Amino acid sequence: MDETALLAAEIAELKKHRNAVVLAHSYQVGDVQDIADFVGDSLGLSREAAATDADVIVFAGVNFMAETAAILNPTKTVLIPDPKAGCSLSDTVSARDVLRWRSEHPNGLVVSYVNTTAEVKALSDICVTSANAVKVVESLDRDRDLLFLPDMFLGEYVKQQTGREMDIWLGECHVHAGIGEQELSDRISSFPDAEFLIHPECGCGSSCLYLKPDAKIFSTEGMVNYAQSSSKKEFVVATEVGIIHRLNKKTYGKRFIPVKESAVCQYMKMNTLEKIRDSLRSNTHVVRVDDDIAAKARRAIDAMLAVV
Ligand code: 13P
Ligand code: SF4
């Protein structure tokens, strides 16, 4: 048995022993995706975390995702294999920033992308993911002021789609913000017949659509579903490169070209099979969210799950 197969076997044994599941985001390294019980986007992972009857959830993703799982499962043990797996986007907004906006807009609504800390979610009215942001915002009272945070590119996209006036927090993910007009136009000239799948967090997501008006804007799981049903054979994919492994696994006879090979999230890549094995073995690192914050954050997550 090679090293990977050995680790996979150890993880399978530990999972059985502890009644555990491994949930993994599509940006995880291929080996981690391959041993996971569920792989998906932020929405799918939140749903799965809310539904699981396992005693232990190992979250192969980043901190805000593991926190969401802990908020949805206060009686379960949620583990993150590497607690340094942060998110540059969630770091752009703090609870104090939200309180400041709220004091200036006493009747306002705060809509938070799930890429936020538990403290920010606790001060929000409703959460969104990239898969449901348009639908959630459409469901909200149009007469109230609205703050969309923290991703400005997703915010712009939602504003365009809904036609709703809103304040947009000027945050960005360093990986997606680096996918812009240049990367998109280079790929358009190299692959004129390919279909373009773009994540709404990308710098090219809303403002560069004039370059490729028929590009499809999707969450990571939306890309997988679309590629499975499309008759096209070649796709240019604008998001973190980990999704290519999943797209290849879930389709047959199709070619996926990353719009930018170096679009790699170093936080997502911190989880390894070894760290997952160790986290199950030694019960590390337990994700803890203060009870009061968790109860308030849960209201915002549940409000989202009730819409879609
Ligand atoms: P989705 O998988 O929900 O599209 O989110 C992308 C992302 O950047 C998560 O960190
Ligand atoms: Fe955060 Fe961007 Fe990494 Fe997603 S890809 S976890 S938004 S830094």
From TrEMBL:
One of its GO terms (molecular function) is 4 iron, 4 sulfur cluster binding. Its EC number is 2.5.1.72. It catalyses: iminosuccinate + dihydroxyacetone phosphate = quinolinate + phosphate + 2 H2O + H(+). Iminosuccinate binds at H25, S42, Y113, V114, N115, S130, H199, P200, E201, T220. GO terms for cellular component: cytoplasm. Pfam families: NadA. [4Fe-4S] cluster binds at C87, C173, C265. InterPro entries: NadA (IPR003473), NadA_sf (IPR036094), Quinolinate_synth_type2 (IPR023066). One of its GO terms (biological process) is 'de novo' NAD+ biosynthetic process from L-aspartate. Keywords: 4Fe-4S, Cytoplasm, Iron, Iron-sulfur, Metal-binding, Pyridine nucleotide biosynthesis, Transferase. The keyword Repeat does not apply. It is found in: Cytoplasm. Binds 1 [4Fe-4S] cluster per subunit. Its cofactor is [4Fe-4S] cluster. Pathway: Cofactor biosynthesis; NAD(+) biosynthesis; quinolinate from iminoaspartate: step 1/1. PANTHER family: QUINOLINATE SYNTHASE, CHLOROPLASTIC, QUINOLINATE SYNTHETASE A. Catalyzes the condensation of iminoaspartate with dihydroxyacetone phosphate to form quinolinate. Belongs to the quinolinate synthase family. Type 2 subfamily. This is Quinolinate synthase. It comes from Ferrithrix thermotolerans DSM 19514. The gene is nadA.
